[in-house]
């Protein structure tokens, strides 16, 4: 009998997830049912926001909670092993889907997205550029404007600085948690300046210094004090796109399922600032544009590759701890 390995939750994490909260188990390779393809995964995305699903999820969220005994899931790229006749899928073809954290998956045909050769590296389909691109387009960014990306070294932020520059931003500022990552933001990822969380100076003071003329666009992946600081520095008519809530999701004393923040509404009113949640439902040609930029050398796809599913739980802990820059993937 052929076997497949997958990562399961053993018990709800007490605080931030640790490798001991998970186990790698061997199970029979799944037998696809009607309308399903058997896919052998090659890569899957390790994302910090999965902590919210481990904590019980949030009402209205598109993904269900993960309970003890459940296999984790997330974006993945795999090779079709077998597919029903007439499905349009061919053995050996690469597809993207959402049943990661396992070596083999039985995936409904309508949830398999053939990748083709639009991107020079198939793993680049897992970077969060599409989210960053959607947020910047939704913001109405125009040439010469100043952009602040809260969480500039993460999966979304490592792409947002570069994309903002390509879409015409005049100045791009990012925040991060270490001097080494701050240096990489400026050297590699399109940022003009970096705000250091937990530095000697407050986030408010650093942001005011980095953007003396104020902020026009904010891509907020974090919430908390960084969102408050962005509101304080925002120019009249600024647009804030709320993408994530990492400040709450990565707080060791919570479950990651609530993200309270206290904002002074007077600046919002007096400066006509707009806050909007991200609408990531329309791709708007992102993949083709991304491929063109990659092949022309105008953008990079920061990928941290962890070899082997047995190291996936360690990779998650490292991602939550902020060890890496860019998108973290497990390669099998």
Walk me through the structure:
The chain is of the alpha/beta class and 332 residues long. It has 2 domains: 3-126 and 301-331, Medium-chain alcohol dehydrogenases, catalytic domain (Quinone Oxidoreductase, Chain A, domain 1, Alpha-Beta Complex), CATH 3.90.180.10; 129-277, Rossmann fold, CATH 3.40.50.720. The protein contains 10 helices and 15 strands. The strands form 3 sheets. Strands 3, 4, 5, 6, 7, 14 and 15 form a 7-stranded mixed sheet that branches. Strand 11, helix 6 and strand 12 (234-242) form a beta-alpha-beta unit. The protein is globular, with a radius of gyration of 20 Å. The mean pLDDT is 95. It comes from Frankia canadensis. Residues 15-330 form the Enoyl reductase (ER) domain.
In terms of topology, how is this protein built?
Elements: E1 3-9, E2 22-28, E3 36-46, H1 50-54, E4 76-82, E5 94-97, E6 104-108, E7 113-114, H2 129-139, E8 146-150, H3 157-166, E9 171-176, H4 179-188, E10 193-196, H5 203-210, E11 215-220, H6 224-233, E12 234-242, H7 246-249, H8 265-270, E13 274-277, H9 286-295, E14 303-307, H10 312-320, E15 327-331
Parallel strand pairs: 8-9, 8-11, 9-10, 11-12, 12-13, 14-15
Antiparallel strand pairs: 1-2, 3-4, 3-6, 3-15, 4-5, 5-7
Helix pairs in contact: 2-3, 5-6
């Amino acid at each position: 009998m052929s076997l497949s390995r997958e990562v399961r939750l053993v018990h709800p994490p007490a605080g931030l997830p640790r490798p001991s909260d998970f186990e790698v188990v061997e199970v029979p390779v799944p037998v696809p049912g009607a309308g399903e393809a058997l896919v052998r995964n090659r890569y899957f995305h390790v994302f910090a926001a999965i902590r919210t699903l481990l904590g019980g999820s949030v009402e209205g969220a598109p993904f269900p909670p993960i309970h003890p005994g459940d296999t984790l899931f997330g974006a993945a790229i795999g090779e079709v092993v077998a597919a029903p006749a007439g499905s349009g899928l061919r053995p050996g073809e690469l597809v993207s889907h959402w049943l990661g954290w396992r070596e083999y998956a039985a995936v409904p045909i309508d949830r398999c997205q053939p990748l083709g050769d639009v991107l020079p590296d198939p793993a680049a389909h897992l970077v969060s550029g599409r989210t960053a691109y959607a947020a910047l387009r939704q913001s109405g960014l125009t040439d010469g404007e100043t952009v602040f990306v809260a969480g500039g070294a993460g999966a979304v932020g490592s792409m947002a600085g570069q994309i903002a520059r390509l879409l015409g931003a005049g100045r791009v500022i990012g925040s991060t948690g270490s001097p080494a990552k701050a240096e990489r933001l400026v050297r590699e990822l399109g940022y003009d300046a970096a705000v250091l969380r937990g530095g000697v100076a407050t986030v408010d003071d650093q942001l005011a210094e980095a953007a003396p003329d104020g902020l026009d666009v904010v891509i907020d992946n974090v919430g908390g004090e960084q969102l408050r600081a962005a509101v304080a520095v925002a120019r009249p008519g600024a647009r804030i796109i709320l993408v994530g809530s990492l400040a709450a999701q990565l707080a060791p004393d919570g479950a990651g399922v609530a993200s309270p923040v206290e904002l002074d509404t007077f600046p919002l009113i007096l400066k006509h600032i707009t806050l909007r949640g991200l609408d990531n439902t329309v791709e708007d040609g992102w993949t083709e544009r991304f491929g063109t930029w990659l092949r022309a050398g105008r953008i990079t796809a920061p990928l941290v590759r962890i070899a082997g599913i047995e190291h996936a739980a360690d990779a998650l802990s490292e991602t939550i701890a902020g060890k890496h820059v860019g998108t973290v993937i497990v390669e099998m």
